[in-house]
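Colleagues,

For the teaching module next term, I've prepared a clean inverse folding example: a structure given as tokens, and then the sequence designed for it. I'd like students to try predicting residues themselves before seeing the answer, so please don't circulate the second half yet.
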């Protein structure tokens, strides 16, 4: 198989019709039989792959910073619209968060890993949103099946349910409650793992105002936790970063293996 076929397979598994701006093929390749995949893959991992005879390196977190990457965050506009919030309101709330992130993006070394891959002639691709979308869907389905029509569900029940998923069960860092308490009623449980990165406290508040009782995130910074606590409106659970990324990456790897591709996992992926 070639890099395009593998990418198309991952996009199809995630239900995506177009390549997200935070994913892409940095260096194309064909006749791929052995893949080295990790959450964060950089020059050291590219050299390792070359030394060990792999045909392709796959990173989850983007290493080819697309100047349009922040457009991926517009997914929140559609998510909130589905929950009943007008697009114009969520767009304005999101604009401040995108502007904040743009400062870090502007100074990033966007060609570092891609240039190393090209010099090594090592096929290299990133799969960010496809894996995140898959993780989000898998976890949401699990929680929906577990708590459908159970209004008495507490936040601790959701934590316990998350740990039934292999990636969370096998992870060294277990799911934690960041906003709310063990006995807080969960209300509507909404898994939010795609959209590039955390949406920030104002967009988080918008989800609660749209009827969500408990948000299940991959991660959230301490400053955002403090801001959300002051809002006194909902619960936030952090399922775990590497473990949540691993849910989607494991599904993609499984699909590729069914096509005869050897996939070796490393760099943060929690195997099942």
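(Answer key — instructors only)
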């Amino acid at each position: 198989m070639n890099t395009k076929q593998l990418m198309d397979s991952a996009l199809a598994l995630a239900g995506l019709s177009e390549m997200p701006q935070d994913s892409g093929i940095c260096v194309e390749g064909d006749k791929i039989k052995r893949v080295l995949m990790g959450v964060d893959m950089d020059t050291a991992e590219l050299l390792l792959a070359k030394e060990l005879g792999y045909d392709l390196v796959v990173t989850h977190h983007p290493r080819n910073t697309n100047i349009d990457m922040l457009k991926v965050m517009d997914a929140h506009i559609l998510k909130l619209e589905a929950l009943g919030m007008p697009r114009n309101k969520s767009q304005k709330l999101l604009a401040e968060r995108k502007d904040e992130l743009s400062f870090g993006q502007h100074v990033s070394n966007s060609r570092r890993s891609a240039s190393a891959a090209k010099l090594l002639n090592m096929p290299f691709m990133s799969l960010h949103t496809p894996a995140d979308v898959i993780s989000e869907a898998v976890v949401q389905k699990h929680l929906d099946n577990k708590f459908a029509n159970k209004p008495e569900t507490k936040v601790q029940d959701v934590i316990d349910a998350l740990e039934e998923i292999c990636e969370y069960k096998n992870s060294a860092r277990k799911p934690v409650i960041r906003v709310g308490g063990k006995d807080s009623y969960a209300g509507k449980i909404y898994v939010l793992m795609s959209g590039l990165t955390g949406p920030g406290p104002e967009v988080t508040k918008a989800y609660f105002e749209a009827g969500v009782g408990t948000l299940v995130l991959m991660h959230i910074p301490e400053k955002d936790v403090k801001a959300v606590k002051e809002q006194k409106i909902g619960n936030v659970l952090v399922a775990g970063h590497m473990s949540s990324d691993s849910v989607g990456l494991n599904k993609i790897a499984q699909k590729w293996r069914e096509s005869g591709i050897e996939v070796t996992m490393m760099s943060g992926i929690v195997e099942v």
